[in-house]
Amino acid sequence: MVALDRYEDNPKLSSFKYNFESHQKNILETIHGGALATMIDVITTISILRMTHMRTISISLTSEFLKVIKIGEEVEIDTE
Questions:
Q1: Assessment of whether the complete model's pTM goes beyond 0.85
Q2: Which residues contact 3 (CB under 8 A, 6 or more apart)?
Q3: Under a CB-based contact definition with an 8 Å cutoff, are residues 42 and 35 in contact?
Q4: What angle do CA 71, 75, 9 make, to 5 degrees?
Q5: What are the φ/ψ torsions at residue 10 (nearest 5 degrees)?
């Protein structure tokens, strides 16, 4: 995962890119939803830490997948 410097002047915004690998695939040869949910959990934690250094944990994470992600496909995620 790579943090992008798009919003370095605004700690409330973050941008990341990640390239999923073959060990994160499911039986349909697309990215496993659990792997994507894990990345979302990590990214939101990093985003929170940009605003405060208080320790946090995820209490709830709900996901709705809009399209499949293929192995090797680069994904960019912006948070607000």
A1: no
A2: 14, 15, 16, 46
A3: no
A4: 155
A5: -135, 105
